[in-house]
Write the structure tokens for this entry.
Amino acid sequence: MNIRPIETEAELQPIRHMAGHIYGTNTGRLFLEYMTTGPGDRVEGRLRLNDDAVGLLQFDVVGTFNGQYLNFDGQLKQNKAEGGIEEENVVVSLQANLQLNDGGAFGGRWETSVGNAGTMQLFPHDHIEKTSLPYEQALGLRLHIHNRQLGVVRLAFGDIKRLIEFLQEKLPGSTVLVNHSALGNSEKEAGQTTLAPEFLASAAELGILQQMRLDARSQGPDGLDRTVTIELGRYEKNEIRVAGGDEVWVTGVLEAVNAQLADKQSKVATLYRKHGSLLNTGVFLALLIWLPGVPGVVNRLYVTVIAMIAMLVLLRVHQTTVPLAQIRLAQAQRSFLDEVWPGLATGVLTALALGVATTLLAFVDADSLFSGLSKLLRLISGSEGETGGAVE
């Protein structure tokens, strides 16, 4: 088979590079170069396949890429001379339908016009030129990974946009991937991964997010990848992770990202979430000191159970009403309520917890728990005065 020779790089001018494998009826290694060539999502490029059985094949590809799905058709052409006229004929056509996954790679299915089929994986390789280091120096390379836990965070669309721009500034040439799931929309609750520009363009339609993760990656001067991950969720955790070969750079970027999010955190709500279990411990110790004044093992058990249940319920209510991360993409900026709500809700719940403890101390007397509760009910119903007069 006379395969068309490969043209020069200047003829194609690729702006994206991917490498990967195919599996199925055929196996082999892939290298894809493509560029945006027109309005919308249209892309053109060249796919080189080193088939384990056939050898090197080259396909001209045309397709679309919308930030989530990469679909393309490829044609394997051959020059054929008939009657002194050389014509270019299509020998085999290939079709691939791929989707971007959480790890930043593309996976999907491929099929040819002659019946070959299987699965395909492609990984972005925009940084092709690797720094060449002596063997002794390469042995000394070490990847440093630092992380930082965040507190209760409130973010709006403007905050997310500035955060993405900040990551692109700290990691020049990087592609920021956004993994997210919307809250209260069954069609968008499942996690989706898109490029940052596509995410920002459709952010207003998502409303409130259940979770969001920003991933940025670039190559450092030592040849090791530099990565920054910001993970935010309503009920799981908020965390910053930075990795790279230069520990000074890793520490500096970690502190810089943390500073970007510092004014978007609620200190009061964070302290309550962090030390909520300590409050339960404090209540338990207080009960140990106070309970000897309550006669009977059963009464002491009642008081302990009521106090612990009350604290657990309040902690659960706090986790529900004040989620770890509140991300409202329909708002350009955070509102006044977004700013004050975490601290306000925490203060109300803390006051309620103190009220429960005070009620137990005031109305459980030395006779029994039930007499104390009866006293409270009589006070509420307004019959306390009549009962007191009868006793006198």
